[in-house]
Amino acid sequence: MRLVRIAAVALNQTPLDWAGNRRRIEHAIESARDAGTSVVCLPELCITGYGCEDMFLAPGVQRTALDSLVDLIPASKGIIVAVGLPVFHESGLYNAAALLCDGELLGLVGKQFLAGDGIHYEPRWFHRWPAGVVSHLEIADRFYPFGDLLFDCGGVRIGFEICRDAWVADRPGKRLADRGADILLNPSASHFSFGKQEIRERFVVEGSRTFCTSFVFCNLLGNEAGRAIFDGATLIASQGRMVARGPRLLFADEIVTTADVDIDATRRLRSQSFDIGEAASGIGLVEIGYAWPDLPASDVTQAAAAIGWEISPHYKHEAFARSVALALYDYLRKSHSQGFVISASGGADSSAVAVLVWLMVRLGVEELGVDGFLAKLGIERIAKAVGNADVARSIVQQLLTCVYQATRNSSDATRTAAETVAGAIGADFLAWNIDTLVDDYVATVSKAVGRELTWKTDDVALQNIQARVRGPAAWLVANLKNALLLATGNRSEAATGYATMDGDTCGGLAPIAGVDKAFLREWLLWIQHEGPLGIGPLPDLRLVNDLVPSAELRPPGANQTDEGDLMPYIVLDAIERAAIHSKQMPVDVYRLMHAKFPEYPAEQIGAWVERFFELWSRSQWKRERFAVAFHVDEANVDPKTWCRFPILNSGFESELEELRKEMTNDE
Fold first, then answer.
1. What pTM does this model have?
2. Mind listing the pLDDT tens digit for each residue in 235-284?
3. Which of its termini does the chain have fewer beta carbons within 10 Å around, N or C?
4. What letter would DSSP give residue 228?
5. Cβ–Cβ contacts within 10 Å for residue 596, how many?
6. What per-residue string of b and e applies to 621-630 under the rule 16 or more CB within 10 Å gives b?
């Protein structure tokens, strides 16, 4: 039995934060060293940050990344460290992982498969490194091997599959196993989305089984650059079993997960499946002496079980709460803002955003402690203002302001709901009436156009002016507090354009824009009755959950509801997923929805499908202008992260005509 202790490390980095990124890398290496590990795997592109976008192409960034790598070499004394960075070589830029061993840089491996779908855009900046090719790169007046490498450190062979390399059918791991790899490292920048962890765990375990190696997966952590959330997953598998699984979605700067693996055991398995032969001595093998420490025998194949919120029957609700809470915390501190402002309506959307800020404080304080939470946040005035009775509530009060701006069309029920929720979570609550402002705008424009504006002739315009009048005051409060104004729109509204530009879309950050309204309402009910593990329920949300969703922009007698304006949210969201995620044409969506919702007449289903495509087609300009949104579902309607669509388009005219013919045939 030859035991090796390895560490998978997650890091919360920031693009181009050279000093901070290096400091966190060095601290993580020290933490791993203190845990007695010999091999440390750090995330993809962690020297620069993954989200540098077009700054990857800046020669200064490329030079500084190499300088930072050189500065990190001494930190590897007595240990083996994998660290990621961009590398310009000859005529291309490559996404690379460097291996440091005992104070020496051994070489760099190029990523062979780039992520270019959904939220990822790697082919814009990077070139693929071809399999089987090795070159040399000059760094600090020395030449180092660069390319498709396998490292032999004191008789233990270490190879790389960099993030997407492990997600494809033609995995580099197979060729590395042919060459005798004992350990495969998978440094990643794998964004969070619902259900994605199960996929990761499958390829980690399958990689260790199929390639007869020990497999190490590590990830970035937190909101690194604005939109993507990284969950900090750390996984270690050996002999086809998960042997270590770290916690996810923590507020810490690092997560270090360790495990002891048996090199002799994986070699015995590999000898039965692979003919190492000449492949082991071929090009691309970098050898160096390394004195591996002796470890006491341990049970290295015991399966590591998921714990805590990850085994909850309400996993998706827990994951949404924790991912967005963490993303808000990182966005707040990395943007150097002083708090949040929400235009509260008393409805589900604004209440959900307020609750997420409350959860940010509750979860962060629970994990980091009050001092740690405030020190990392770096807002001095909040630290000074915190009381002793209910610390979390005091912090929320200093961070969050909810503003309710009523018109004659607003109900007492929404005012009560907004104020009650703000009081339940401890937020500052402001309220006033804007009828005079609205009336002044309407009177001014009526005089200018020479006629009185009425609900009979100007319905949409009169609705929109109310929403737009709310915007300037909400921005004013945010400016006064040096705070971020949070937009409260959801994915369903974005898909249909059911929002007033420069009104309810006001804000610099949209925390819930990545989820649909049907899920959001389910989530609020869960928060009301149960809540996240360790936090518990928020019963006062009953006042919100009992309301029928309404924009409250028409006079009360109109009985306006969101679903009346659009369609049932459960139907809308099913249509959106079929049309936008699955790229189905109107007639195909109609057939799917007709089968999915037999309780509705075919004519009604067809009308809803037609309405969705019409609203979608003419609303792309709105989606282009929406505030920065968090990516939490694998598919969404944000053109910045997933779904691009032409602003000017045909409106699906011929496709909708085909739908109408189909409906006529069904009658």
1. 0.96
2. 999 999 999 999 999 999 999 999 999 999 999 998 887 766 545 556 79
3. C
4. B
5. 15
6. ebbeebbbbb
